[in-house]
Amino acid sequence: MAKTYKIAVIPGDGIGKEVTPWAQKALEKAAEGVADFEYENFDLGAERYLRDGAILPEDEEERIKANDAILLGAVGDPRIKAGILERGLLLKLRFDLDQYVNLRPSKLYKGVTSPLANPGDIDFVVVREGTEGLYCGAGGAVRRNTPQEVATEVSINTAYGVERVVRYAFKLAMKRKKHVTLVHKKNVLVNAGDMWQRIVDKVGEEYPEVTHDYQHIDAATIFLVSDPSRFDVILTDNLFGDILTDEAGSVVGGVGYSASGCINASDEFPSMFEPIHGSAPDIAGQNKANPTAAILSAAMLLEHLGFDDAAKKIHTAVEADIEELGSTVRSTDQVGKDILARM
Amino acid sequence: MAKTYKIAVIPGDGIGKEVTPWAQKALEKAAEGVADFEYENFDLGAERYLRDGAILPEDEEERIKANDAILLGAVGDPRIKAGILERGLLLKLRFDLDQYVNLRPSKLYKGVTSPLANPGDIDFVVVREGTEGLYCGAGGAVRRNTPQEVATEVSINTAYGVERVVRYAFKLAMKRKKHVTLVHKKNVLVNAGDMWQRIVDKVGEEYPEVTHDYQHIDAATIFLVSDPSRFDVILTDNLFGDILTDEAGSVVGGVGYSASGCINASDEFPSMFEPIHGSAPDIAGQNKANPTAAILSAAMLLEHLGFDDAAKKIHTAVEADIEELGSTVRSTDQVGKDILARM
Ligand SMILES: CC(C)[C@H](C(=O)O)[C@@H](O)C(=O)O
Ligand SMILES: CC(C)[C@H](C(=O)O)[C@@H](O)C(=O)O
User: Fold this and answer.
1) Is B219 a pocket residue for ligand 1 (Cβ < 6 Å)?
2) Would you say domain A1-105+260-343 falls under CATH 3.30.1330.50?
């Protein structure tokens, strides 16, 4: 008998609400016969915040934690000051649920036009650290609003936090083309950069089949444009990973095809899967948003739960859909139906 | 009678030594009749360090300071641990000489092939803060080399430091298309980001003709690929500026055409002009390196000293050279001669 998994669903705002149902449908269809899903919906995001001021109430966070995984749509609204929802909801979940691997595949699908003239065969994964670095909210300001104001941001990096994500990257490389590229800025951020490099060298010795090299973040942004097919697994910190994955999304034809997983690889807390795109208030409510990235995030969820064959069904359907119909204008529902029909 | 300017020349390492003489020749030719130059050469960089361990001796730094401007080639050698020369020489000069504006124009020249399929008309300038942020070397580590290691990097940002570079950007925008885009990550780096935004808003009020908007660094890396012609003046901090200008260099066909100025806009200390590319040990000594970026850095030096017409001569010659011969393989000396012949 198929086991039932409990999934917390946070559709969020804008197009998040429109694409998430398609992620759920794809999940069910792909796992038919091998897994069942029971959903718990959470009304979190900008609309909730504007309505009653709540961002992530403690009891709701506890209930989220009791699930096997989380599906998130998108969160955000231009009416809310930058940082409030990001730090109070999205990053809070990543940190509290210790989702230390932020996994972001970039693939140029056949049928998608890259902005690059000669993109080559792009298929790499960014393994972004998710719980440290400049994202930990350390920092402050004195004499705010005066000419003497000083504002700081502190990047905190621990050997504990770095080593576990480095191990994840090498393990992942073993299943791929066996190459890891560490990206940092160790010629300037010498403390953190040196520690990352030492840990990569050490863990690398345990994986003699995996080659690894190093690039400064500035050089990496060049190669993502000039030679993106050189990459297999890119391993980097929280901020550099944020930057590189958006650039990568652009290079593979837009973040509309990019999903991501915020993974607690020790399974202590549920992992979270989301499209990389935002809530896109400009096209919200018009049945226009492309649900492909959300559907791909369902595939990542399935892989995380161990259902590789089910995930493969989604990938195959998405690839065929994009190749055949990627350039036609379709509604959210039409794309969702087309992909499901192929599964 | 033409005034004589004293120029400190730091050819540095690798191809730095090959391209810098062409920057000097272009400088002289362009300023013929309006300015003369007297050079003081400094033997600094990797080769000097490997020879006698000196990076930037105090007396040499004092002599550098006594010049009107600095021409730098490139510094670096793979035999030296990352950070030593960067922090001991390049960044030390930027900081000690208070070069708070790191000015980096990006232009797609006619005759250069961009890696983008539809690059459009790319012509923007990045105004990167040069003396603060994550570059100040604040940070450290405890329990180094143990599983309990913690490494920090601290970004220090002051209203004083931010306001002066913001003013520079708005003034520059008045001479261009009157648009400033602030790039930061204010939804995560809330202390520094909020201060940058407030200061931009405040200074912006003094320039009612200049419009300004904001982009997160991750979004900016997308637009540099998907729609780079939208930018006019990009204003950003030290680290984000480092990243964006390399990506921009790639988008305009390679850092070989990109020059930069580290500018002390209060003229208290000399400003420094350099090509964006590195010392390229792989092609050093082969008369292969393209001197165009170095020659363009001479044009920036001339503009800084107020010789706009002379600078224009260089720009016109470089543009014509690239349009006609940009795709032919030429030696360093041939490119140098060709450009000079047009001036
Ligand atoms: C919304 C923001 C906090 C977030 C981040 O910076 O991580 C986003 O850009 C992302 O990449 O998921
Ligand atoms: C060499 C390095 C310290 C430097 C920087 O990060 O500023 C370089 O990348 C640059 O952009 O000039």
Assistant:
1) no
2) no
